[in-house]
Amino acid sequence: MTRVTDELPNAPAGIAAAPLGMPRGWQFAVVSGILGWVLDAYYFFILIFLVDVLAANFHVTKAAIVWSITITLATRPLGALVLGYLADRYGRRGPLMACVLFFSIISALTPFAPTYTLFLVLRALYGIGMGGYWGIGASLVMESSPSRWRGLFSGILQSGYSVGYLLAAVVIPIIEPRWGWSWVFLSGLIVAALIAWLTMLAPESQAWKKTRPAGAGELARIVLRHKKIFVYLVLLMTVMTCLSHGTQDLYPDFLKTVHRFSGAVVSNVAILYNVGAIAGALVIGHASERMGRRYAILLALAIALVSMPAWAFGTSLTWLAAGAFLLQFGVQGVFGVIPAHLNELSPTSVRGLFPGVVYQCGMLLGAPAVSIEYALRNNLGYAWALTAFELGVIVALFFLCGFGPEHRGRDLAS
To answer: What is the spatial distance between Cα 342 and Cα 322, in angstroms, rounded to a whole number?
Structure first.
């Protein structure tokens, strides 16, 4: 009996054939898409660790630097709209390369801003690049992945966000004492060049070639035809933004302010909980291929919920670190399902635009979460401000995901 495989016959010696139906070089598309999201997150999170330094440099309060996070999140939908449109009209590769180079150059210019106002302008421009990248990168990775590995690559892609956070926590203590904080912003340019090179080696998305829209009018009509799922997914991503940024962005400051931990200790805790986040995205993303997208999200939410007491009210470094590790396992486990989930629920011919705009509109509406939490600490205390806000978020997500739709395993090229 002849054994049936999913590899192409007559592959050159020493070179693995692509899975059946997959073009040669699909791995370059997947790797470039994932690395771009790592770099994107790195540029976002280095600011989280440099709040005090930036406040002193621009002679403003820490609250003013925290506000720049909201500005960055608020401009992301514009990037998703513009670059998503280009990706649906002209292919994934070119817009992806342009986007990576754009946000990397903007970030490299940040240390040279002469005033706080110009600093805000650069962070707003960076937000456009950051917002544009996720939709293109996610569609390229999901469309280029073998369908049976979609859940796994979804988790790997989204874990890139935590890898970027982890890199920021590792790199800053190495670079800043030796060469100054400016070099932290300059350090990603080499990686940006590598991503652009890998993207040039990658084949164009076969799903895009089969389903590319005729023009802007058709794009608009397709989005309007699917307005109900659009509204649902924007609401879902709004609440998920509050879950992710509400548990991550202020936590280093919480550890420094409430527990008086040193910057080195905070960096080590951040490294630990980002390892948990990476593990959560990989495990839950892969599990979603068997148990379904919604049930995988609900499992991850349950894990986050039970870890909250130690995360916010731990009385020792060990308890706080363990709680943070487990909480981020759950939080990023939720997000590990999202690239596959959004791409499967999106209309086929606008997959470059639809998931990205949905994702970033959610980021826009959820952008005030960090500032709200920061303000609540004045009345509730830092620990209760974080806890009360995130409890409401988790309950809302249980309802949204428990009763929402899913199309696991959908053919993305049909």
So the answer is: 31
Range of 369's domain?
26-402
Residue 411: per-residue pLDDT: 55
- Give CA–CA dist 202/353, Å, rounded: 20
Task: Say what the pLDDT of residue 188 is.
Answer: 83
**Exposure string (b/e) for 350-382, b if CB count within 10 Å is 16 or more?**
bbbbbbbbbbbbbbbbbbebbbebbebbeeeeb
pLDDT of residue 9: 35
Predicted confidence at residue 381, as pLDDT, reads 86
In sequence order, the 6+-apart residues with CB closer than 8 A to the CB of 46 are 168, 171, 172, 184, 185
Q: Report the distance separating Cα 385 and Cα 330, nearest Å.
A: 20
d(CA 111, CA 186): 9
pLDDT reported for residue 76: 83
Number of domains in the chain: 1
| Residues of the chain under the 50 pLDDT cut | 1-18
Distance between CA 130 and CA 37 in Å, rounded? 9
| CATH code where residue 167 lies | 1.20.1250.20
Q: Which long-range contacts does 379-384 make (Cβ < 8 Å, 24+ apart)? A: 382/254, 382/257, 382/258, 383/254, 383/258, 383/312, 383/313, 384/312
Are the CB atoms for 275 and 325 separated by under 8 Å? yes
Distance between CA atoms of 160 and 285, rounded to whole angstroms?
13
pLDDT of residue 162: 77
In 3-state terms, what secondary structure has residue 7?
Answer: strand
CA 220 to chain centre: 26
Residue 131 lies in a domain: yes
* Residue 19, beta-bridge partner list: 7
Rounded to whole angstroms, how far apart are CA atoms 148 and 389?
A: 37
Work out the angle at residue 375's Cα, subtended by the Cα atoms of residues 372 and 381, and round it to the nearest 5 degrees: 115
For residue 13, tell me if it sits in a domain: no
